[in-house]
## 1
Amino acid sequence: MSEPTNSYAAGGLPPEVVRVSEVSKRFTVRKDSSLKERVVTLGRAGRRHRQDFWALSDVSVDIRAGDTIGLIGHNGSGKSTLLKVIGGIIQPTSGTVLQRGRIAALLELGAGFHPDLTGRENVYLNASVLGLSREETTASFDEILEFSGIGQFIDTQVKFYSSGMYVRLAFAIAVHTDPDVLLVDEVLAVGDEQFQQKCIDKIKEFQREGRTIIIVSHALDQIESLCDRVVVMNRGRMAYDGLPASAVERFRELLEENGVGEARPTQTSRAAEIERVEVLDSNGQHVSELREGDAFRIRVHVRMIRPIERWALGFSIDTAMGQMALASNTDLLSVVLPPLTESRVVEMTVAEARLNPGSYYINANVSGISEATSHSLMQAAEVDVIGDSRSLGSVAASIHIV
Amino acid sequence: MHAVGVSAGWSPRAIAASIRDIFARREMLDLLVRRDLKARYKDSALGFLWALVRPLVQLAIYYVVLGHFLSAARGIPDFAIFVFTGLTAMGLFQEIAIGGTGSVLANAGLVKKVYMPRELFPLASTGSALFNFGIQLAVLLVATIVAGQIPWHPEILYAVPALLVVLIYGFAFALFFSAMNVYLRDTQYLVEVATMLLFWLSPVVYSWQMVQGIITNEIALDVYTNNPLTLAILGFQRAFWVSGQELAYPSHLALRLGVAIVIGIALLFVSHRVFLRLQGNFAQEL
């Protein structure tokens, strides 16, 4: 595994690097944690204070060298637990996990940084935590420093670092540990846009080098564009394992089954809500199908719960895969909406958008400017675009060979 | 392919694997010890000198209050050296036990996010305790030179098994209680009380010869003496306290120390297995 490569013996599958067999993990939730409570609730009474919860049940996955696997699922579905079991951070209750090569877990950037030590000292410590020897760290130290862009501050205690510097240094160390298997848990969601791009670039570089990457993320578009295989977790079980597009679809189905994504009163003090969204053609008729290139209107029903002085409204159109195709809001349009004093309808016309044929979901969001309140309704409406475009992606175009 | 994590099994192979795993991370252990030490004295002007202040103040208190006000020094030649010898040895044990017990909890950030043999944390506490012990030992040796009681005699060899006893029992203690502490936070207070008790149970500020004069029952005296920490303290006193050589010591001290080492290794082994059993759930209990 020291020379990652994409070419394998003729016809043979790439070697397995991780094999998860029939893994189950039980968590015991206790309501008492001090000795006194433990003694008081000893024996039978104690069992009532305990609650078993299966975070994983009977999960088996084989992961081969060079795979980029996405783990998706709603909160509490067991995806992060599975990642931790693969990383050896949590021991499974039953089942086995076998592994080959060096695993580096990017579960939290900067885990183990000591605030009182300098950047340099922390580089050595953190690299060693991730499995690098001192010579290896010394050899790649300049590269790490360069990548992080920390410069002269490397000899300053990290407690004086800004959070951006902290994250950059941590990421620089992690990607220079030369892992065979990289576990990534939501870390792509931190940092500014430029930094996120750097992360993605590095991950793509790892892919080209034939390393194995396992990513847990809520960003479905990211998962879809990076992974070549996606596992959907639901209540501790594997609900799907296969191609990203169908996995995302399966995930959406699960979300609907579980009632996530529908308007739910999560915040009772909310001032306004998106009630529903309609799609109309340019004549004001309800439609569920549009021709490619047709202008259309989006009508958003906003329900007022409490009056708001200043507020904003936005919408987005997602592809069936969950990737954003088009979005805008009153802020971008420089529109100031009148104070919301009663439930009302906001209508927007969208012209000259040339969406490629396929089905699209429309999401809408209302947020307060004068006070903090926000509500989004995901997949509030669905519309199919029909046409005879000969291109891929979410934009249609007339393309000719010249 | 190899299994991820560690097995808590009793088979020789599982045991060898877990020890190999720790050995492979010795560089990291070294860094953890350095981190502990550096971080502790980072922003203080006197730095490592502070490691000496506590034992020296303790020495002064025991020397003045116990030795002279309460006349414990009567019959103990070079009382200062005697007390400091005991304090140095006992300090090592206390630091390993208390520091080690809190070590897994103190490194919760690492335990939750990265895999590594978790024994490294109590081991690192042991390492930094050994460093402080080294400083104190150097001071003790300087003191013996100043007092003209240089421990250049064959009995200095007692220091080796005595140190081993302190290390083995201290580490076994730290391993067991650091794992317990993750599940039950009361453990750290329990350990503090226990080490205080052990301090007064051992002849650190009073001499074994006094105990011998009070406990006349042979068996009771043996029970008192065979406390491994008492044996270790006595070993240190034989090694470094030159002016006490003529006093009576328990018979076969070397043999007793040897037996304590063997039992200690067995204990260490058991507490390591317990640690491995419990560590599988550390990440979610923290």
## 2
Amino acid sequence: MRFMIIVKATTDSEEGIMPSEELYTAMQRYHEELAKAGVLLDRSGLQPSSSGIRISYSEPGGKPKVIDGPFTEAKELIAGYTLIEVKSKEEAIEWAHRYPDPHGFGQGEIELRPLYEVEDLKINPELLIKDTDLDKWVREQKKT
Amino acid sequence: MSLIDAHRTIDAIWRMESAKLIATLTGMMRDVDIAEDLAHDALVIALERWPEIGIPDNPGAWLMTTAKRRAIDLIRRRKLRDQKYEEIAHGIDLYKMNDADPTLEGEIGDDLLRLIFMTCHPVLSQESRVALTLRLLCGLTTDEISRSFLTSKSTIAQRIVRAKRTLRSKNVPFEVPTGKALKDRLSAVLEVIYLLFNEGYSATSGKDWIRPLLCQEGLRLGRILAEIVPYEAEVHGLVSLMEFQASRLKTRVSATGEPIVLLEQNRGNWDRLLIRRGQAALNRSQKLENTLGPYTLQAAISACHAEALTAAQTDWIRIAALYEALSRVTPSPIVELNRAVAVSMAFGPSYALQIVDKLSEESSLKGYHLLPSVRGDLLVKLGRFDEARTEFKLAASMSRNDREKEFLLKRAKECEP
């Protein structure tokens, strides 16, 4: 199962202030541990929301609105993520627990979210079969 | 935290820590069996105490300290009984043991590596190596292992007991081999990992086409190995190969459970992240070594498929060339059969049929269902449907996987006039 450990943004991360050397080392060590346990899939840090944009569909069927960053509510923003692959939810929780306090001044918050697996998407098996049929049909059309 | 929750958490922690525990304890005791017992003792103590005192801040270190204390008790008792055992405790400073000793990190990695070399030692039979590795390095229970291999629990348990006994009676050292021995022994380790992965990837018997647990364990072990022996090109080659294959794991089966061959899979559903990881591992391997080893070559072939946006864009000429190189490094009729498929795609079915017909004389391929299956495929392309049908039927009668059997019979039926 895959889980995403999401690091929430803070006022500092939104201002583009880099983590202290101590914190940086702790992060490196943590991710090395993940890699050595064979569970690390991917990780990345995100730039502050000031370099991002938002596209919002505020009217059903209407044209989307494009809004430039920064966005204000830091706690609802993401500063980075770590993607892991583990055997159980408990294992994911245990790894998330070992994540160092991501900012170190009282605003640190991380979130753990499971990813959908193909098995979870079998909500409508008929649709999946239709998908397979459609693929087949497209291929046959291409042959002729 | 409820008792059930606590037990599930402890289970998860056990899975994360058991290999490191057993590796370190084997280093102390020079016996995997005793090491496993001691690690289990620590687990039992945790199961008793943690629901009361709560999960410790550093559960791994807690387990390690507890297990080491038991190990030292055992050594002391033996010492009193017989001075000869003194050498076992050699090198362990009884007064220097802390709860969390960060300086040990590197050594734990070394111990893990020694343990892998031990469980994959050539004195053990192939199936014992696999069972012992799953048990000691992946932390799987006998039950999980037996379910993965569709054998009884007692068979696996016996296999493990016998393997441990062999390791002891043959005095297999707990060490990382050096020099030329390292390459040979490493290739034995890679073989076990790939066997594990492959057994999960294309289950050779039973009802399911894929057994994900084995794939995951194989891939995880490979990724761990790439971290602890980063200087070996073939380790990255094998990891790359497994990442690429795993990227297609979920598109290999239709919603109704039948296998979908590579060229007919929905490429949009291939796992891009795993493909990227596969490419990164392949690059690493190629940087380390100019002459590509067998796993790296196979990974390079897999990369050709991963990089083609549609089946029609596949670079078959390159794949055929890579198979040619592979058959030089590891000549085998199975590689030759794969080369035939690539040649068919690159240069046409009649060239490929010549290769396959030469292989039909090969005695080692007697009973191998993919030979008639590939031959049938080539005959279909040449419009020789009658002969093709016979080949598919033959292939179906040889396959031991129910799903595959069905699939081959369906292909035979499609050849009927």
